[in-house]
Amino acid sequence: MEQYILNGHEAVPCEDLMEWARWFESPEKCRVAETVRGKIRVSTVFLGLNRSFGDGPPLLFETMIFDGDQKQYQDRYSTWAEAEDGHKKACALAFGTAF
Q: What is the pTM of this model?
């Protein structure tokens, strides 16, 4: 399993499973962005685990849309900057406006 923690906005590998678990005791550190309008919520977080499953660069961040017409939407990214951009795109998709 490839686990990571954040050093600022930079994802760094973490070999020590206990150190990794302790880092995640404060989940607010994982929030990249969250936008809520009415019932619709767009959430972008740092996962801490590589979700590329060996196919390409590590995918460590995830955006999901909850509720609304796009509630099945999900996308993953390698960097904080990509995750921020992805959050904006998901908001535009979810809310039908530019962000």
A: 0.92
